[in-house]
Amino acid sequence: MKLITFTHGGTTRIGVVKGDAVVDLSTAAPDLPREMVAFLEAGDAALDVARAASDAASSTLALSDVHLESPLLRPPKILAVGLNYADHIAETGMDTPKHPMIFNKQSTSAHPPGDPFHAPRVSDKIDYEGELGVVIGKRCRHVPKERAAEVIAGYTVVNDATVRDWQMRVPTMTMGKSFDTHCPMGPWLMTADEVSDPHSLELKTWVNGELRQHSNTKHLIFNCFDLVEHLSTAFTLEPGDVIATGTPSGVGIGFKPRKFLVAGDVVRIAIDGIGEIENAVVTEPPETIYIG
Ligand code: ZN
């Protein structure tokens, strides 16, 4: 199933995409939670109800008539991995990490799959990173990689947008990775049953139609299952947590001269078998200055 969070007629709820149509689960299965994290917390039974309801639905909305939101409006955690493709490590000139280089993006950076994201007023060093995102479906701890598939609800496409100077000027990446709007994702959560092998997916990123990144998730150094094992060694993973699995070569900072994003650029990221997201870049608007 392609599970979405969408807004239509002034309310936001979840649904299932079927071709060019959307089954609105708030009407097709009104007893289900209407928010994705709560829906995932309801477990396999809720997934079964959604699947049956979407198969039986007689009325649908047009996909083009709804506004897609981030599948997870506010993931409990957004975890990410640096330096997880050999070709990207080579372009950065760094050494291959012995352990997954984990960092967080703040959950408030989650952003819709088609909305513009911000070129911040404090920097002109904004970059893109096309990545496969893993979405956790079951609360878990100490998951061996052989069982990691059991806790994965599905997969999505992530742009780990990055403010490079803010990332590099201090030892931790938290600030440079967490600007508002800097985690576009979607267009949907592709449930794991429809992804036969998450480690053989073509990944491509274009900027203004120019192919910048082209790799395959088979090249991940620490794969999705390794990451679930590693992360859950330290802390509980929860339904709706997103793990951005790292980016291959071809990010803007890897070019000579560098190719940072400017307002007006359009970033499109596609992962075969999952979907694609496309986000323009806009100058951070005045409305981002507020208190209360
Ligand atoms: Zn990244």
Word description of this protein:
This protein has 7 helices and 19 strands. The protein has helices spanning 25-28, 36-41, 43-56, 86-92, 164-168, 174-177, 224-234, and strands spanning 2-8, 11-18, 21-24, 61-62, 67-68, 78-82, 101-105, 110-111, 117-119, 126-127, 130-136, 152-159, 162-163, 183-191, 202-207, 210-216, 242-244, 266-271, 275-283. It has 2 domains: 2-68, Fumarylacetoacetase, N-terminal domain (SH3 type barrels), CATH 2.30.30; 78-288, Fumarylacetoacetase-like, C-terminal domain (Fumarylacetoacetate hydrolase, domain 2). A hairpin with a 2-residue loop joins strand 15 and strand 16. The strands form 3 sheets. Strands 1, 2, 3, 4, 5, 6, 7, 8, 11, 12, 14 and 17 form a 12-stranded mixed β-sheet that branches. Strands 9-19-18-15-16 form a 5-stranded mixed β-sheet, with no helix packed on it. The longest helix has 14 residues, at 43-56. The chain is an alpha+beta fold and 292 residues long. The model has no long low-confidence stretch (mean pLDDT 97).
